[in-house]
Amino acid sequence: MSLELTDVTLTYPDGEDRLTALDAVSLTVPAGCLTAVIGPSGSGKSSLLAVAATLIRPDRGRVVIDGTDTTGLGRAELTALRRTALGMVFQQPNLLPSLTAAEQLEVMAHLDGRSPRKARARARELLAAVGLEGLAGRRPHQLSGGQRQRINIARALMNDPAVLLVDEPTSALDHERGAAVLELLLDLTHQRATATVLVTHDHSHLDVADEIAEVHDGRLRSRPAARL
């Protein structure tokens, strides 16, 4: 199992009391599976993603990433785990305006100490995988919103992560481009055997998911995927 959350509870201070964001949540996402997490605003979707990304430590429960139990890990160990085992696709691509599409990816490999030659080869491979092999030299302002989001996805895959966490990737895209991005995520999940968690408010594209998990008031329940 590539991602496993077991009995995760997360609370925040709320005056003299504490507000429960996640209430004994358990979620297992195996390699090669795309799980969509849905729910109304304020239900706990973002908190679940932050806990899965080890950005927030829960009050109770376990988070296991690619076989590593993160419960007792220190800050430096968690940072190293995120760099090697996690890929994150944010709602906005946040591409650096001065860098080309290829350079957006290469800079991630440089942070890991990989050689420039290997970084260039990996970037070319991933740009081809997301259908942008002919646009490696273009800068963000020369690309469409859908193309920028594809670069965002490719960048998250530079470290060959076991777990891919995706936050509202279609929020700034029209229906057609959003559908294309989600189909791409599904294909990459199956091809590269990542455990993918997709947080989305867009229920019109849920047919791409292998599994669906619904969050309400911090509690999670599974429901059948529409395409099964």
Notes on the protein architecture:
The chain has 228 residues and is an alpha/beta fold. The protein has one domain: Rossmann fold, CATH 3.40.50.300. Helices cover 32% and strands 28% of the residues. It is built from 6 helices and 10 strands; from the N terminus they run βββαββαβαααβαβββ. The protein has helices at 45-52, 75-85, 101-111, 116-129, 145-156, 175-192; strands spanning 3-14, 17-29, 33-38, 60-65, 68-69, 86-89, 163-167, 195-199, 211-216, 219-223. It has a 6-stranded mixed sheet with strand order 6-7-8-3-9-10. Strands 2-1-4-5 form a 4-stranded antiparallel sheet. The two termini are 21 Å apart. The mean pLDDT is 91. Pfam families: ABC_tran. Residues 3-228 form the ABC transporter domain. GO terms for molecular function: ATP binding.
* Class from secondary-structure proportions: alpha/beta
Which residues form runs of ≥5 with pLDDT under 50?
A: none
Largest sheet: 6 strands, mixed
How would you describe the shape? globular
Task: Quickly count the domains.
Answer: 1
Helix proportion of residues, in percent?
25-40%
- Ends: how far apart? 21 Å
State the CATH superfamily name: P-loop containing nucleotide triphosphate hydrolases
Rg, Å, rounded: 18 Å
Kindly estimate the percentage of residues that lie in beta strands according to DSSP.
Answer: 25-35%
Q: For the largest beta sheet, what order do the strands appear in spatially?
A: 6-7-8-3-9-10
CATH topology: Rossmann fold
What is the mean predicted local confidence, pLDDT? 91
Number of strands: 10
Oligomer: single chain
N-to-C SSE string, H for helix and E for strand: EEEHEEHEHHHEHEEE
CATH class: Alpha Beta
DSSP helical segment count: 6
